[in-house]
Amino acid sequence: MAKVQKCSCGNDEEGLIERLEEIITSFKEKPGALIPVLQATQSLFGYIPQEAILKISEILNEPLSKVYGVITFYSFFSLKPRGKYLIRVCLGTACYVQGANEVLTALKQQLSLEIGETSPDKLFTLDVGRCFGACGLAPIIMVNDDVHQWVKPSDVKKILGTYKKQKGVNQGEVK
Amino acid sequence: MQININNKSYPAHEGETVLDVARKNGIYIPTLCYHAKTGQSAKCRACIVSVEGMRGFQTSCNLKVKDGMSVLTETKEVKDSQRMVVDLMLSSGHHNCLACERSGTCELQDACYHLGVEKTSFSDHPTGIKDESSEFIVIDYDKCIKCGRCVAGCNHSVVNEVLGFGFRGLETTIMCDDDIPMGDSTCVQCGECVQLCPTGALTDKKSRGKGRFAELKKVDTTCPYCGVGCQLTLHVDHEKNKVVRVTGREVWPNNGMLCVKGRYGFEFHASPKRLQYPLIKRNGKHERASWDEALDFIAERIKASVGEHGPDVFSALGSGRITNENNYAIQKFTRAVIKTNNIDHCARTCHAPTVAGLAHAFGSGAATNSIDEILETELIFVIGSNMTEAHPVVSYYVKRAAQNGAKLIVCDPRRVDIAHWSDLYVQLRVGTDVPFLNGLMNEILKNGWQDEEFMKNNTENPEEIKNWLKDFTIEQASEISGVPVETMKQVAKMLGEAKKVSILYTLGITEHICGTDNVKTLANLQMILGHLGKRGCGVNPLRGQNNVQGACDMGALPNVFHNYQSATNEKAIEKMEKDWGVSGLSRKEGYKLPTMLHKATTGGTKILFCVGDNTVQTEPNTAKTIKEIEALDFLVVVDIFPNMTTEYADVILPDVCFNEDEGTYSNLDRRVQFLRKAVDAPGEARPTWWIMQELGKRFDVDLKFTSANAAWEDMRRTGTIMGGITYDRIQHIGLQWPCPTVQHPGTPILHLNGKFTRGKGLFSQTNYRHQAELPDAEYPFILSTGRRLWHYHTATQTRNSIGLENIFPEELLEISPFDAKIMNVKTGDMVKATSRRGTITLKAWVTDRSPAGVTWCAFHFHEAHANILTNDAYDDVTETPEYKACAIQIEKVSDGIAVVERGFRQARP
Ligand code: SF4
Ligand code: SF4
Ligand code: SF4
Ligand code: FES
Ligand code: FES
């Protein structure tokens, strides 16, 4: 079993797991508890650690494969720790045609990250998606809930810069 | 109603689908995701047809027929669309039939064949990803078409809940647990997913390259392992005289499902270790002899001994593992030739209390209802049964019923795996079943939840039991059993309010010094609740071995002839004397198995003729058993493998195994099922009926056993409850006794409408008696014993089949986390377990299956088996040993390699 990683903010996850157990137990008797419990887990840890998956399966008495199936079905849930900012590059057809791949390459270079990875300072996670449903603005990247439209590779530096700037204020903050 | 398919009219019935009607009439429509067992998922769209008056195409697998409906399956448009579906499916993976195990039975290949698709017109996407981590199953992801049949089967048919779909879109994939290798997952290798997979994505690892389906001969038969009696098909390579694959037959009782033993434990028949020739012990060594030599020698020794000391120095053991015919043969020989009733078998060590207890209460000592009725009940009350391991296929039904909304209560000192699926798990102390159940009944009566009508009309002594139970307060029961009062009240309420309750129990009830009382108490409970003689109810013992029901039915018991005709009743004796053409049958009841052995040391037993029993390893207190066996003058063992008992034999005779002769087994719901010959027996191995016939001749008696069928017919002539069962009638599906005439359809439910076999039901007054050997300061732990999923009996079959031993290679002592912590023992450490009778050294398995103070291990491995420790204390009525409770001490010997346990895993660490 993968060892649960220690959180950089010093908030130890042992405590969090205990809190999670309470949350799961409070949902136990309710039908359809799985998704709300996973949401709670995601916001508690910022991702869904393996130990939590085992706990959820055990306490809710749901097959592991069902829990894992739901987690991997919804992109909202993440199995790896995520950075403060989740950057998602649309690789849908419209965006692709408009040069999304070049934008992605620029992001990879500037962040030194591959798809799915998180920067060591836990600031950025790089990911891709398929059609965000706003093809008229292609190519698109999303940083958390912010939409950046008609992005060119040369815009990347500036976009990243605005988020890095906020870092000073929020550094180390864990929701 | 009528529907039109391709402009021809066909009869159809309400509720049928277009696909059903087409198939019935030989019209091929390609299907991939549909399977009769997993139902309609309408996922793949391979089965589309066009229907007059409906727009677009319809999936025929879930399209219900309507009168006058007009369907086209062969138009160019339909075919083109079907072709596109199949084409896309081919392109989404990588399908190369040349070396595929499924070739010839693959439904994708069939579709391609019928649609004329030679290869995909797109490019395909080989990834080369295979999962070969499990012992018996290969997952080839490139051949998976994501039809979902395996996922549905694993979750809703066998309900092992391992497989699921993960990820989404193009990445969607089947996965085990949280996408870990199958070999590390909770998979129990039942192979249901393999059987359901339409393609070569899931295949049997061991059969790879050993023959494609079409080349192998298929022989339908019955599983040689547990008492469920699953129906299976052996796929046989005739030239090599070997079974190379096993599949489940989709008929009752198992509907295609099997467990790991039934599906993958088949090579033992071809093991080079099989006994092949008669052996006679000369100067301490077993030497090969001819049949004539061996049989002459045996006859001579029997004649000498019986001549001098009388017939009762001879004892014989039949077996719950051999056929009905062979059990009948040995009982007839013992009674008709030797003229003693000293015949018994291993039901003595398991369900003799069931036979005695239920016969006492109801008049018949067998399961009252059938396996399939589990799906119709409201509340399943499981007590003393580790069914996911000992009776896996029954557990599938129980889990499915629970999934469909039936309530499930599991009572057991150990948190057995089935508890995982229960609504309520009740942990009671070892051996406290009687007070626990009496307390429940007290509460039921107090609240008026009993079935007053049933008690009044259908039982003999209702007022008596009501008075008796008044003293057993729930508080007192709680104190003895350790079950909180609140929990007991909850159980009583659930029992009292359910309209249908089915009780399932196994050896946790019977293998106690109060085994018969335990059974009687369960019978009391169901009579109070009135849950007898109706569908989905009853008292249902899960019989352990493949034919332990049959061995009882065949009269391999010291008190009855076949079909439970009393061996001490003058009329029955005369009937048998007349039919068998002999005189002077014994008038007195014979010895039970333990008595046969005890008497060896005092000279009362001189000869033991033992068929398929392995007495040394299966009786409690091995050291004592060995002394008794050694004290015999003469020991004959008939078996298929050398074992701990053959070592002591003066003569060893090689027997045939389940697929080397015809015959019948009777399963746990009284179903007599057929066995077919699939391969030739090794060397000079011979069936037991032949051995008895040849021995009989040496006593100038013709027992008339010219074949298995002849033995069956010989039994049937004087049979009562089985008189109507012939080989012809059970070729396809077995028949449940009572079946007295050849017109009789068999009896799924005993005591219908509360009309008990004995007339009225009889309540018994039972009282608490604690286990014979209580833990104390010196021996502080209770040891309980049983069976593991991966092995069977003394493991001669399972350890001589490939793979089972890799999954579970050695016995483990299950210890609770609480005790382990105190003793500083981890899973994998070596420990020494000692009782007053012996010591074994084995690895520990720290698991919360065990409650504090209770340990557990099985008797499968001769290197370290439970019976070295178990106590030779017996149920006073039936002499069934108390395997479920003795006292031991534990000492840590050395550290092992730390094992990482990962959440809940079934049947192993
Ligand atoms: S072998 Fe049985 S338990 Fe294992 S994945 Fe297949 S169906 Fe499920
Ligand atoms: S493995 Fe077989 S049964 Fe399972 S989804 Fe794939 S093709 Fe269907
Ligand atoms: S459940 Fe019993 S009868 Fe069925 S396959 Fe397994 S061992 Fe054989
Ligand atoms: S393709 Fe990017 S938004 Fe639609
Ligand atoms: S078989 Fe009908 S949709 Fe798959």
Please give a handful of descriptors for the protein shown:
heterodimer; A: 175 residues; Glutaredoxin; 4 strands; elongated; disordered C terminus; B: 909 residues; alpha/beta; Ubiquitin-like (UB roll); N-terminal domain of TfIIb; 6-stranded mixed β-sheet; 34 strands; 28% helix; 17% strand
Describe this protein's structure:
The complex is a heterodimer of chains A (175) and B (909). By secondary structure, chain A is α+β, with helices and mostly antiparallel strands. Chain A folds into 2 domains: 13-73; 85-165, Glutaredoxin, CATH 3.40.30.10. Helix content of chain A is 46%, strand content 10%. Chain A has a 4-stranded mixed beta sheet with strand order 2-1-3-4, covered by helices on one side. Chain B folds into 5 domains: 1-100, Ubiquitin-like (UB roll), CATH 3.10.20.740; 213-270, N-terminal domain of TfIIb (Single Sheet); 279-350 and 547-719, Rossmann fold (3-Layer(aba) Sandwich), CATH 3.40.50.740; 353-541, Dimethylsulfoxide Reductase, domain 2; 781-894, Barwin-like endoglucanases (Beta Barrel), CATH 2.40.40. The model of chain B has no long low-confidence stretch (mean pLDDT 93). In chain B, helix 21 crosses helix 23 (622-631). With 909 residues, chain B is α/β, with parallel strands linked by helices. The radius of gyration of chain B is 29 Å and the shape is globular. In chain B, helix 8 (324-338) links the parallel strand 16 (314-317) and strand 17 (343-344). Chains A and B meet through helix 3 and helix 4 of A and strand 8 of B. Bound molecules: iron/sulfur cluster (3 copies) and FE2/S2 (inorganic) cluster (2 copies). One iron/sulfur cluster (SF4) binds next to helix 4 of chain B. One FE2/S2 (inorganic) cluster binds at residues 31-34, 42-47, 59, 61 of chain B.
